[in-house]
Amino acid sequence: MATSGSVPTTPLLKDELDIVIPTIRNLDFLEMWRPFFQPYHLIIVQDGDPTRTIHVPEGFDYELYNRNDINRILGPKASCISFKDSACRCFGYMVSKKKYIYTIDDDCFVAKDPSGKQINALEQHIKNLLCPSTPFFFNTLYDPYREGADFVRGYPFSLREGAKTAISHGLWMNIPDYDAPTQMVKPLERNTRYVDAVMTIPKGTLFPMCGMNLAFDRELIGPAMYFGLMGDGQPIGRYDDMWAGWCMKVICDHLGLGVKTGLPYIWHSKASNPFVNLKKEYKGIFWQEEIIPFFQASTLSKEHDTVQKCYNELAKQVKENLGKLDPYFVKLADAMVTWIEAWDELNPTASASTATAATNGPAKK
Amino acid sequence: MSVQIEDSEVDIVIAALHPNLTPFLEAWRPFFSRFHIIVVKDPELDSDLQIAPGFDLKIYTKSDIEAVAKSSSINFSGHSCRYFGYLVSRKKYVISIDQDSLPAKDPSGLVTDAVAQHITNLATPATPFFFNTLYDPFRSGADFVRGYPFSMRCGVPCVLSCGLWLNVADYDALTQSVKPNERNTRYVDAVMTVPVGAMMPASGINIAFDRLALGPALLPGVHFTGEGKRRWETLEDIWSGLCAKVVSDHLGFGVKTGLPYVHREGDGTKPHGSLNKESEKVKLLDDALPFFQSVKISRNATSAVDCVAELSGMVREKLGAVSPVFASAANAMDEWVNLWKSVGAQAE
Lengths: 365, 348
Known about the structure:
The complex is a heterodimer of chains A (365) and B (348). Chain A is of the alpha/beta class and 365 residues long. Chain A has helices spanning 30-37, 67-74, 90-95, 121-130, 180-185, 218-221, 240-255, 274-297, 307-322, 327-346; strands at residues 17-23, 41-46, 61-65, 100-104, 108-110, 165-174, 198-200, 213-217, 258-268. In chain A, strands 1, 2, 3, 4, 5, 6, 7, 8 and 9 form a nine-stranded mixed sheet that branches. Chain B is α/β, with parallel strands linked by helices and 348 residues long. In chain B, helix 7 crosses helix 9 and helix 9 packs antiparallel against helix 10. Chains A and B meet through helix 7 and helix 8 of A and helix 5, helix 7 and helix 8 of B. Chain A: One of its GO terms (cellular component) is cytosol. Chain A: It is found in: Golgi apparatus. Chain A: The record marks 153, 160 as: Required for activity.
């Protein structure tokens, strides 16, 4: 049964959470987030020209990596990190030493709820991650652990403890995350509907994971959050987060972890150029039709009991099944393996992590 | 792939568990008056019904039920009497709302039209094969998000629309005992498709469905001895909903949940007296869970009635020995299939 009684305060987790931000220009948007982000350590991944200086507003505790740093730290393995694409953010996940990651785009601002109050997106993500998920049976009142809600009549009691939450996927007011064709057909559409719910995406169901406003438990699922090969020299873009989301969901379903979507909202201010987007997405729109059935049919076995083992197995399956679709997938599969090697090198104590072994212990140094 | 639903294609089915239907009907009048209404009187209710005038309304009573289903072992008393209404309806769509539920207000204070919302839900496609993070892509102001496969954007027909409840939420007896004063005040402005393969508790308090496509799968399978009129004492809708979801998934249709809300009064009674009966019920769903998680209907079953016929055999085989409740459910499902074939099939 979900807890009743007084509303507990959400812990800050300021020593257990890193905020990862990819950027190519500046971080002025952080000023608006200052009341919510200042207690946290930021990992800034600078894409594009490494000689450019990125201005970080005063008072934030951060580490910044540009392309030279990525090359220096990873050596030849740096080939798995995208260049000239926000997919490079996953380098930040790899170098973080914290249990939780929150990642946000630099054109995302603080949204307001219907009462006009500013939304502390990070606090909501933390709540989402600290509460169980319910992937095995859909609760029609959405998140049963939220104050004022519970499991409904007919929800099996044996499932009411829920599963550990690996992912908290937030949404966006204003400019919605549409693909290029939809943007072109509906250039003026804005998301003005505030849906006051968090819910678990059922086991066995895939979804499009957007990286604009996303938090996850790095110890539970970090190695699966590779954002693929996009951008410079690659035939595709704007599928980085999608790719990570499909791999992640197959693995979470296999390991019995939960994925939540819904609150919190952020305010997405910039619509990227739909013509540029169409060029980036073009191949993806066709490839997606093969990729989705591939992920839907993908199976993992009992021997794949860590995220890394699952991911390496997926890489094998990608090469075997999608390699014939385009040689890009052979390259991507190799990059997936490289990613895991790099992850394990940079995170040696977590190299044998399993979903069951992960705990809410003290932050790693 | 949206369809146009005419008023003449809709029946509103109301189970009368208490004699005075007038306050309920008056509250719903602005939304019900255009439609034909079927009232099924609980066969265990002795008093005459009080019904507000001015509705196109037909009442079915114990004698009607006995005339049609006298040799059946199906128990049509209490909340299960509504299934008789589903059986005798001759419309394509049915909307059913509990007698203790009234029109709800949205956060702006506007009274919402649950009937119109259910009709919209049934008229627009469902999207069960991939989860859209902006919920119903067919709602104005929303769409499919980046990464949603284009080949899945037509959706499939929505055959079941499960609405929700403000005020007294549909909790089981144990939860209500622990949280007697909790009221649902959160209006979640969303409709979404419950993905294929995902199971859910489909509460019968506020529900609508495509009777032609799914009708036989909304079935009176589970009725507990001594079951009363309080929702927390029943699981008939939950069992029915699990069967209906399996059938809908098999036939390639979709099920939506979310809006509309109704404002549920409940009856003010506390569940403590029912708690001794709860332990058997509590176990039942957990016992049935592995069955519903793994059940596979054969490709030969291409209609809802065929699916239910197959399901009943599988319930008997896999669950019959687990509890007499399931053995009875299998029998009830067989009889329901026969009734449906002889009485229920045609629509206007």
